[in-house]
Each structure stands twice: as structure tokens, then as C-alpha cells.
Amino acid sequence: ELQQKVEETEVLKMELQMLETERVRLSLVEEKLLDVLQLLQQLRGLNISKRALGKILLSTLESCHDPQPGKAQLLEVLDTLQQELAACELLHKQPLEQAQSPRSLSNPLVISC
Fold this sequence. Notes:
Layout: H1 2-45, H2 50-63, H3 71-86, H4 89-92, H5 96-100, H6 102-105
């Protein structure tokens, strides 16, 4: 009976470790999603065309094409999309008056590099 309790304890420890690993992975996915959404909101504020945004998205999906999708690919797609959006020229070509306004300094969506 004691041996059975030890085995059950070991199984529970392994399950707890797996849950913790999954929690960390989900936390990373959530952070990437937030970054992507913030960049999308910035670009929307700069009136990026739907066509340009579509090209960024299609480029991201093509560069991450994998015949066997999985959890790792999801994070790769999000990471690549975030990089593509952050590299968008519109984010770096803000008008002088907007860059100098005090309102742009307090914008919570601005991501400093």
C-alpha cells in the first residue's frame, strides 16, 4: 500500500510539472498575442491599407509553412508576425508633428525598441 502511494505521488508530481510547463507556454503565447495586437492597433491608427496588412499576414504564413502544424509552429507564426509588423515602414515614418506631440508619448500602445 505504501508503494502504491509513492507511485501515485510520483504520477501527480509529473502531472504537476506538465501543467506548469503548459502554463509557461501559454503565458508566452499570450505575450506574443498582446504584442501583435498592439502593433496591429498602431498600424490601424496610421491607416495602413488592408492590402498591405494582408500582404504582411500572407508573407508570415508562407514563411512559417509546415506540413505538420503544432504548438511550436503556433509560437513561430506569432513571433514571425510580430517581427513583420514591427518592421513595417509605416511605424517608422510617423509625421513630425505626431512624433512631437505630448499625446504620442503617453500612448500605451507604443512599443519602445
